[in-house]
Amino acid sequence: MSLKAILPSTPPRGEFPCATSPTKPERHPDILHALINTYNLPEPVAITILKAVYAAQATLGPKETQTIPPSEIFPNYIAVESRGFHIYAPNTSQGGNGSVFVGPFIATMRMQMGDDLFSPSKPQNIARKVSHRPQKNGYSPIKKNVSKLIEAVSPSKKGLIAPIYSASTDKKGIRHMMMPAYPRSFANIKWAEVENPVHYLLSKVGTVCHALAGLHKLGLVHRDVKEGNVMDDERCKLIDFDTLAHTFQEVGFTTGTVDHLNPRSFGNAENTLFYQRERQGLQRRCDDMFALYHMGLNMTLRLCSELIPPSDQETHQLIAELMKPKIIKPPQNYPTFNTSELRDIGMRYPHRAHFYSRNDSRKIPERIAIFPDVVMYRELLSRITAKLPLSKAEATHLLSFGSFCAKQKFKSDAERSKADSAHTELTVMLDSLKTSCSASSRKRGASSEPNAEVQKRQRKATSLPHEFDENTQIALPEILTV
């Protein structure tokens, strides 16, 4: 279905077929008013849009969606569902499994999704994830029941997991999932604007651990833990659960999530790269905590990059050494490495993380990325944090956190700290930071204490839940230090 240009002699609304919502006809005036006000539309245009929406609604079941594409009279997509319609612009945020759109949802009847109430008179911004490909065989039982699984998470962790409002499918088999829209994700935090950034970082990563602990206790693995899948509001929310799987399935990481950067996953250094070539296209078993510690390192480096003055190029170069791998390509005019070259590179970097890459579909030659090891992370982070415009206590705790993440990332999967233990460790570290420095200890030119309202907001935004499951009541005996 598409919207057609409005004729000069547009008839009155009462003469349109499907002129009122098939769900709640009496709410048509509220729906029309909401659409006109949201987009500042002439009434004939709004009526034409609603005519198409109502006609689509009349054919839809409770788990079905029909999308009206942009047209010459309205430049946005309209995803129509049985109880309302979602309007969003073509620009999007793309992931490995789908695209995410944000825009107003106008309910055609009073309804509740999750804990939120929706009314025809009050459009609300929501997010919609649309799969890239049709779900030919349907979703697995775990994905069909994802909302019920989230509801099963213990109350202390429920507030840390974003709800899914609804899931539906269009006639082409494309999957649609509606969920709340959040102001920002971990990927776009402006660290220079954050009060007490080290406290904020530790508390936020701690809450992600707390959320993962709830999923892992249910025997589930998220498979796509990264900055873009953690929404940041008063209590950060873990999102994107269409990749969930049971731990007994021994599934790999989802497309786009960091994979096999741990050299201890591949045996001895000599055969690491050779083994990676042989297993190209295969994945080792997913470990959410490996991805979480990788995310913690990335966030530490982003924080440092934003707080270090641009004039300090020497320190920014150190940050770049940790963020950007050393790329090794085959000898000139050769698309691949031979076996002896792969083994030689592995021997030259026995303690560094390797990543082998080749894309046959695009005829891209082989390449090898060599990442820092734990010792290099620790040494360079020590030099970087010393240059931050922070108090000594804050810099010390940031270094402890970064070193902790590096150490855990490079452990074997069996030895790596699990979500509950990591949450406890970060809580201890955070409590130590609280006692070591006050909210005004940050030395970035602040001339006075934050006012009472700012302090209240900071405490609310950075508070870390202390409710643990029974098996995590024992606090760590010591605070992590470098």
TrEMBL record:
Residues 1-25, 439-468 are annotated as: Disordered. InterPro entries: Kinase-like_dom_sf, Prot_kinase_dom. Gene3D superfamilies: Transferase(Phosphotransferase) domain 1. GO terms for molecular function: ATP binding; protein kinase activity. Residues 86-405 form the Protein kinase domain. This is Protein kinase domain-containing protein. It comes from Simkania negevensis (strain ATCC VR-1471 / DSM 27360 / Z). The lineage of its organism: Bacteria, Pseudomonadati, Chlamydiota, Chlamydiia, Parachlamydiales.
